[in-house]
Structures are given as C-alpha cells and as structure tokens.
C-alpha cells in the first residue's frame, strides 16, 4: 500500500520508514528506526529528489507510482549518493527509462563506481547552476563533506524549499508524522537528532559551517532533509543546534561522567563525585557506563555538555578498552573545546589517568584537562575524600 504525504503545493514526500534495521551504517543502534526521505515534485515536468535505501525500495516505488498517477518521471536529482539514499537509483532507471539524472561530477563518478547504468541520461550541474521544471526553478549549492564529498543541496526558489541532503536530518522513523510541528521535537527527537548529527556528520564541522553561511543568504521556508521530520516552522531552533554542534560548542553547562569500572569500585567513586556535584548545585549531571553505553550515545552526550569526567580503571597497563574506544571516537569525530576531569584507578601501576591526559592533550584539539586529578588505588576510601573535594571544586570553578 502506498504511503505518501503532501509537503506543500505539488510536492510530496514519497520516502519510507525502516524499523527492522538494528544498526545504521551497521554501527549505530537505531531503536526508534529511521526514515529515508525522498520527495517528488509535480510540475510541467516531474522531478524526484533522491531515492531511498534498498531495504525500503518496494514501498518507495509504490509511493512514486501513486503520486505520478500515470505520468512518467522526467528527472531524478541526486543530492547525496550514499547508498541509504542512492541504492534505488538503478530501480528508478529500470522503471522510468527516459529519466534524466541531475547531479554533479563527483556524484556521477561514484554512480559509475557503484555500477549504475547512468550513461546517456546524465545532466551535470555545478555550484550556482539553475534549472527550471515549469513553474519551479531550482538552484544547486555544493555542500562537500556534509557528509560525503559529492553532496549538494538544492533550493527551490519558487516555494523556498531546501532539499538539504543529510543536513538537518535525524534518526527515528516518522510513523505517519512528517513535519516538525507534528512531533514534540525538543522532548522526543532532539537526543536522536544529536546522536545522528554528531556521529554521522560531526567530524565535518567546518564544512557544515560553510553550508550554514551559504544558507543564511537564502530565504528558506521549508527544509526537506533525507532523514527525519521536514521543518516548516521554528527553523531557527534547529539551525542554532547545527551551528553549535558544528562549532563544537556545548549546548549546555553540565557534566557528563563516563566511567569504566571492572568490579564497581570506579563506578562507586563516579557516583560519589556526581553526588557531590549535585549537592553543590550542579544538577545537570549524567553518568554513563562506558561498557554498557553505545559509544554513539557517549559521543552525543559529550557534544551536548561543557564538562566531561573520565573515570577509568587501568587495564593491561593501559586505558580500559571501552574508554579507549570512546576516546578514539572523540578524536575521529574532531570533538574539541571541552573541559575534562580525570579519575583514575589501579590496584598497582595506575596508568590510565596519565594515558588519558596524554591522549587528550597530544591527539585532540582544544581540550582543557583539569590539574586536580583523582587517583584511586583499588577503591574510593575516606582518605581520598579531600582529593575528590578538590576535584569537585575545580570542576565547579571551571564552570564559572
Ligand atoms: Fe543519510 Fe550520508 O547518508
């Protein structure tokens, strides 16, 4: 059965939701699913903006056929070729053999790499080119590395719709809803949107900044991303989040405590530290067990707040592996500009604190590590309370 939504006059959402996939990109958990958005414009000519993942291709094809209602498909605009959007290109070509594909040189190169039969049907565009489909005229804007090098966004100058590719996307299936004003985004979606942005596009902050600069010069009325809700109101709310995330600026003053504990002793110290912070009025505190929390959530939470406590046991004379993995991911995603407090533990040859500090200072950018490290020998004991109090004071002082 087809399942489509009208976005605005002559423009329809023809995407599909995915609930069966456990891991997006086979790495990030998506317990609330994900949507693959595609949009179909009915003008003098018919234009499809991007396709969908192979897993939902059948639903997508039904949707396209329904909205076309007997018309043929004239154009397919590809803003982003990653297979979660490009996988169904070949199926579209098979069903609509006269379709012309509009995209850029890099995207066409990749389509050939993926062995799509595009020859004889391509129309190459570059930054600033325009194209009219009847009443609607669109302009193409390059957005390299948001999130692959071939990415572009397409702006419809007639109705103010921005087809924004991965930008302004979110994890989470739409399940009947489509627009941001049909959901409680700040309550139900922001954590997944942040986890999507920070883990998928987080590395490319400067490129996102460059896109935001270009976008600020155009009168955008509706944002149609390739995942998650379509934005038709309160655009500033989400643009502000993207601005902060891509500048690696925290959204909130707060503390995330990530602990790596083998037998509960480091966890106990982390809990005592959290309690002291809260007692002194720092209530925006969250704790995560590095062994049990997917690293994509740790990354997302680290983007959210200003301060991070890393509490790690020493393991094989090194950093506990899940904590090390988290640090490696922070580096890979270019995370920077945070204040870090360190708690280390070791029953002998306690090394994790020094190793974490070296990693933060030598391998990452603009990380401020507080001097007052708390060192535990096996467990938090009364004699360590003064050191913990000093670390708590230091965290609070640095938040001022
Ligand atoms: Fe949703 Fe970069 O693909």
Automatic annotation (TrEMBL):
GO terms for molecular function: electron transfer activity; FMN binding; metal ion binding; oxidoreductase activity, acting on NAD(P)H. It comes from the Bacteria. Keywords: Electron transport, Transport. Residues 255-396 form the Flavodoxin-like domain. It holds the Pfam family ODP. Gene3D superfamilies: 3.40.50.360, Ribonuclease Z/Hydroxyacylglutathione hydrolase-like (3.60.15.10). CDD domains: flavodiiron_proteins_MBL-fold. Its cofactor is Fe cation. In the N-terminal section; belongs to the zinc metallo-hydrolase group 3 family. This is FprA family A-type flavoprotein. It comes from Aminipila luticellarii.
């Amino acid at each position: 059965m087809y399942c489509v939504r009208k976005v605005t006059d002559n423009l329809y959402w023809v995407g599909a939701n995915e609930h069966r996939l456990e891991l997006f990109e086979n790495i990030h958990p998506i317990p609330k699913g994900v949507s693959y958005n595609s949009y179909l414009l009915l003008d003098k000519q018919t234009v499809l903006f991007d396709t969908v993942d192979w897993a939902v291709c059948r639903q997508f094809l039904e949707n396209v056929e329904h909205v076309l209602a007997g018309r043929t498909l004239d154009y397919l605009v590809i803003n982003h070729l990653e297979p979660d959007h490009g996988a169904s290109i070949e199926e579209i070509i098979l069903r609509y053999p006269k379709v012309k594909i509009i995209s850029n040189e890099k995207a066409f190169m990749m389509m050939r790499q993926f062995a799509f039969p595009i020859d004889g049907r391509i129309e190459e565009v570059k930054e600033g080119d325009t194209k009219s489909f009847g009443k609607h005229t669109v302009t193409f804007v390059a957005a390299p590395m948001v999130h692959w090098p071939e990415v572009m966004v397409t702006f419809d100058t007639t109705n103010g719709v921005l087809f924004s590719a991965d930008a302004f996307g979110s994890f989470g299936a739409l399940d009947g809803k489509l627009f941001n004003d049909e959901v409680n985004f700040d309550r139900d979606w922001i954590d997944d949107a942040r986890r999507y942005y920070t883990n998928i596009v987080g590395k490319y902050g400067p490129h996102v900044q460059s896109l935001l600069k270009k976008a600020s010069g155009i009168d955008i009325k509706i944002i149609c991303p390739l995942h998650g809700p379509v934005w038709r109101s309160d655009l500033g709310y989400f643009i502000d989040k993207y601005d902060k995330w891509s500048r690696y600026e925290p959204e909130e003053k707060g503390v995330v405590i990530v602990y790596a504990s083998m037998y509960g002793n480091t966890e106990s110290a982390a809990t005592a530290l959290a309690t002291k912070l809260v007692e002194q009025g720092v209530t925006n505190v969250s704790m995560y067990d590095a062994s049990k929390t997917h690293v994509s959530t740790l990354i997302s939470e680290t983007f959210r707040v200003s301060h991070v406590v890393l509490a790690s046991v020493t393991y094989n004379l090194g950093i506990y592996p899940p904590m090390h993995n988290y640090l490696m991911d922070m580096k890979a995603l270019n995370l920077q500009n945070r204040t870090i407090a360190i708690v280390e533990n070791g029953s002998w040859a306690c090394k994790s604190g020094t190793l974490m500090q070296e990693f933060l200072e030598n391998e990452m950018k603009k990380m401020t590590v507080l001097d007052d490290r708390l060192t535990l020998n096996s467990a938090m004991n009364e004699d360590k309370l003064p050191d913990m109090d000093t670390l708590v004071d230091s965290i609070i002082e640095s938040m001022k």
